[in-house]
Amino acid sequence: MATLTHPTRLKTTLFGGARIPTPKSRPGPFRVRMSLQESGPSIAVVGVTGAVGQEFLSVLHDRDFPYRSIKMLASKRSAGQKVSFEGQNYVVEELTRDSFDGVEIALFSAGGSISKEFGPIAVERGTIVVDNSSAFRMQDGVPLVVPEVNPEAMEGIKAGKGKGALIANPNCSTIICLMAATPLHRHSKVKRMVVSTYQAASGAGAAAMRELELQTHEVLEGKPVTCEIFQRQYAFNLFSHNSAVLPNGYNEEEMKLVKETRKIWNDKDVKVTATCIRVPVMRAHAESVNLEFEKPLDEDTARDILKKAPGVVVIDDRSSNNFPTPLEVSNKDDVAVGRIRRDVSQEGNYGLDIFVCGDQIRKGAALNAVQIAEMLL
Amino acid sequence: MATLTHPTRLKTTLFGGARIPTPKSRPGPFRVRMSLQESGPSIAVVGVTGAVGQEFLSVLHDRDFPYRSIKMLASKRSAGQKVSFEGQNYVVEELTRDSFDGVEIALFSAGGSISKEFGPIAVERGTIVVDNSSAFRMQDGVPLVVPEVNPEAMEGIKAGKGKGALIANPNCSTIICLMAATPLHRHSKVKRMVVSTYQAASGAGAAAMRELELQTHEVLEGKPVTCEIFQRQYAFNLFSHNSAVLPNGYNEEEMKLVKETRKIWNDKDVKVTATCIRVPVMRAHAESVNLEFEKPLDEDTARDILKKAPGVVVIDDRSSNNFPTPLEVSNKDDVAVGRIRRDVSQEGNYGLDIFVCGDQIRKGAALNAVQIAEMLL
């Protein structure tokens, strides 16, 4: 039985027969064309051996992100591992208080407790931290940014050139939802959103992806399933998101969607409810989103708005039943939107239903963080 | 590579390591205790070789349904196959115009076109047809029945003893949703429901279940996937429900939820919207349901109401993150409800979010039909 030991093998093994749509070319403001190792900032990747850490490298490469030097940082456990990147070999260094000397931009994805401990240390040394954890997202004064959605939130930091600062990358579900909802919200203010998610294994890290694959082998062979990451069978099953359930009955993942949307949209009044579910899919999330608007927005206008939105691709062919799927957006930058239709449960054109898919590791994490870093160049 | 050729093997292969909750004992009005082959009606099962047809037999047996004789009917292609049931061997007979002579109750699950052709023929011969297809569901004068929800819809047929009649079994998603929503609706009228489904392979039949399993083998082995039932990869993926998309942008499955709810609740005003998605799960559906009520209904009252509801089991343990999963309800009669919480996007106690799981083949199809038949005894 072949088991996977590295998330990059999942890409080839688990996306075998997928139809891969042609990615929309995106010559937008975030595309950096040069890759001069002499001219860019000095950067660091914290948590470089994790699923998102590896994707940071992949995205930095794909986007020709310019850097003068790059540090590969991780926990003591991973220190000493070798990483090859853009023709150079690096040794993963242990993350310490002194790691950030001379580092201008650090991309963090090593979990909330590492961010809480080392984020402020890095800022003190003058580093701008783009943090993928939830540690600082709701903290006043820390911008929570999706570059296509609220680039204006970065202005204070761009003005304070050379100073250290924290910038938070929103939660994957929030990014993917708002990539689709924001262009519509700009046209006809969203009053209320009801979101149900179909979340991939990758959100729980590379080990969860491996567990899903291992369990699937086990189930097909009639063996008992190995449950190390989740407390229940994941293969051929689904379950309520594994984050802690809060006193109000929502889990943390759901409340991120509720609260982060308010902060990103700078709108305390927007009403959001969410039900977050893990499904046996590898690395892209899907979301069913019901929207209530203040002003009418018909489905044709909505489709036109979404077709023009940067970072969004519309897949909405009713006649051939062709709509977004997680597999199609896997390893892709764009968030795909389809099933765009007038909500028959609301009066006139005050409601829409849409279905959104986005790569959790890429736009839901690494790509968005690198886009933020690009805004600092 | 072991491939499955019969859906019953899926039960043991694909539900291997599942936690199986203790089923709630149900000494309700539909429990029939005798199984006297001399005293019951003469019955027929139409489409006996399909996934639901096989489950009809399993449910008839489990519930000691009394019958004087039983006919196993299917298409010409399946005629001649042998079926063993309750210690007797039967040969599957080809369905013809003369199949219903002397048959008092026929359980149909052979697709809409077979129902449309042979349902009226059976009724003419005096047979009461309980039809699992969508052929007659919205037809005036045909009761659309979930026994726990609207038993009163059967009264006309029970009064017309001895006469042939059509009774429609609702769509699986509708049954599972309304099993949970109706007890709440009776307390504080539901004004609007926003439903997102997570639907299993079984809804597309035994061949779809086999395709999901075969594809999963193929993906794990890095081979191209076999797409015969669906036009896209199903393993480690999900997609918008494969039913036809109507001019209003909803697919047929979604409009069943919208329209059948109105008929079953006898409430033309209830607003429903739905997004129906197929997920790589074998035989039980899940549904995320957002409810808006006319009168306040707090979550504790809702939980108490659901705990007392027949055919419903509440699994709602926030501290251990234990909520319903499709695997847990597979091969079970009860519909499981959890994630019961006040909707933070609505004022006061006018909204609730719930998560529902139910076995698509059992309560979503065969069990509900047999329960209807029991009401005729």
From TrEMBL, chains A, B:
GO MF terms, alphabetically ordered: aspartate-semialdehyde dehydrogenase activity; NAD binding; NADP binding; protein dimerization activity
Catalytic machinery residues: 172 (acyl-thioester intermediate), 285 (proton acceptor)
Pfam families per UniProt: Semialdhyde_dh, Semialdhyde_dhC
Segments forming domain Semialdehyde dehydrogenase NAD-binding: 42-157
Enzyme type, top EC level: oxidoreductase
Reactions catalysed: L-aspartate 4-semialdehyde + phosphate + NADP(+) = 4-phospho-L-aspartate + NADPH + H(+)
Keywords, comma-separated and alphabetical: Amino-acid biosynthesis, Diaminopimelate biosynthesis, Lysine biosynthesis, Methionine biosynthesis, NADP, Oxidoreductase, Threonine biosynthesis
EC number(s) on file: 1.2.1.11
Pathway connected to this protein: Amino-acid biosynthesis; L-methionine biosynthesis via de novo pathway; L-homoserine from L-aspartate: step 2/3; Amino-acid biosynthesis; L-threonine biosynthesis; L-threonine from L-aspartate: step 2/5
Gene Ontology biological process terms from the UniProt entry: diaminopimelate biosynthetic process; isoleucine biosynthetic process; lysine biosynthetic process via diaminopimelate; methionine biosynthetic process; threonine biosynthetic process
Annotated InterPro entries: Asp_semialdehyde_DH, Asp_semialdehyde_DH_beta, NAD(P)-bd_dom_sf, Semialdehyde_DH_NAD-bd, Semialdhyde_DH_dimer_dom
Complexes and interactors: Homodimer.
Family designation: Belongs to the aspartate-semialdehyde dehydrogenase family.
NCBIfam families: asd_B (TIGR01296), PRK14874.1 (NF011456)
This protein's name: aspartate-semialdehyde dehydrogenase
Provenance organism: Rubus argutus (Southern blackberry)
The organism's taxonomic lineage, starting at the top: Eukaryota, Viridiplantae, Streptophyta, Embryophyta, Tracheophyta
